[in-house]
Each structure stands twice: as C-alpha cells, then as structure tokens.
Write a structure and sequence with these properties.
The chain has 179 residues and is mainly alpha-helical. It has one domain. The protein has seven helices and no strands. The chain has helices at residues 2-5, 9-17, 22-44, 49-77, 87-96, 117-141, 147-174. Helix 3 (22-44) packs across helix 5 (87-96) and helix 4 (49-77) crosses helix 7. The chain is globular. The mean pLDDT is 89. The chain crosses the membrane at residues 25-46, 52-73, 94-112, 118-138, 150-178. This is Yip1 domain-containing protein. Keywords: Membrane, Transmembrane, Transmembrane helix.
Length: 179
C-alpha cells in the first residue's frame, strides 16, 4: 500500500500481474472507506453499524463499477496499440490506488474534522493525491504511454460511474431500502 501511495510504478505493475491480489485490493478499499467514515465521525457524529455497512458496500460498488467502466473506455473504446488488459487488472491497481484515503482517519482528532478548515484542506490534498494514484493505476493497468489519456479515462469513468451509482441510490431510496 505504501508503494502504491508513493506512485511507485513497479508496485502497480506487480499488483496488475498478481491475480491473487484482488482480495488484497478489496481489503484496501474496505479499510480506506472505513478510515474515511471513522475520520468523518469527528464532525458528523458516530455512525451506526448500518451506516458503516452501507458505506463499505457503496465503496466496493463504486470501485467495481469505476474499474469496469475504466476498463471498457480504456481497453475497448480508446486503447493504445499496446493495451492488453482485463477488468481484474483494473480492480487490483485501482484498489491499491485508494491507499491514501487511509489518512482520512486523522479526522477523529480535534481540528482535523471535515468541518474544520485544516481538515478540509487535508481532505482536498488527499483527494488530489488519490486521483494521482488512480491515474497511475489506470495508466499501468492499460499499458498506456500517455498519462493524459489515463487521466481522461479516469475522469470520464468517474463521471459515468457517479451517475450510475446515484441512479441506483435513487432507486434504493425510492423503494424504501435506504432512507
């Protein structure tokens, strides 16, 4: 996780190739979403067990959907000549790319909550850092030479997956599953 957070290309290549690392990538997604949720409790109050479960399920759903959309866009619609990838490679690299989000746990300390200026600055910095790790993850998984192309795939994939997740959440709220 440290290597992924440091944008170490060799780590992303290793994770991409290691088909047994998908579970580890899922663990990073779960832990980072828990860290974010716990860090936000300093400002928002303690979440219920149901809130934590929903948060982890949303993080896992977001990760899976965003990785699939990035795979489809990057490997099927706009591949570079050397692009050879599958959905699993994007799941693994993008899972480990969420490592910086673990630092949001700092929000439990006074002055660092999301309703504090310093906490907001740190949350923004961590978001930018995580976007950087995602771009490197996508670039390596898709074997792109262009970082700009990987960034474009991440951006479009994020927008499309965000729309899909919001539609799903709207349906779940509408039928009374969430509320």
């Amino acid at each position: 996780m440290t290597g992924a957070a440091k944008l170490n290309v060799a780590i992303y290549e290793e994770v991409e190739a290691d088909t047994s690392a998908t579970g580890q990538a899922m663990a990073v997604v779960c832990l980072s979403s828990l860290a974010m949720g716990i860090g936000y409790t300093g400002a928002l109050g303690a979440p219920s067990v149901a809130d934590i479960l929903i948060m982890v399920l949303l993080a896992l759903s977001s990760w899976f959907i965003w990785a699939f959309i990035n795979y489809f866009i990057g490997a099927r619609l706009f591949p570079e000549p050397q692009t050879r990838a599958d959905h699993g490679e994007l799941l693994r690299t993008m899972g480990f790319a969420q490592s910086p989000r673990l630092l949001l746990l700092i929000g439990i300390f006074p002055g660092f909550g999301v309703n504090e200026t310093l906490g907001q600055v740190l949350a923004f910095a961590i978001s930018v850092w995580m976007l950087s790790t995602m771009i490197v993850a996508v670039r390596q998984a898709l074997d792109y030479k262009s970082t700009v192309r990987a960034g474009a795939v991440c951006f479009v994939g994020l927008m499309v997956s965000g729309i899909l997740l919001n539609l799903c959440l709207g349906v779940l709220v509408g039928i009374g599953v969430l509320g």
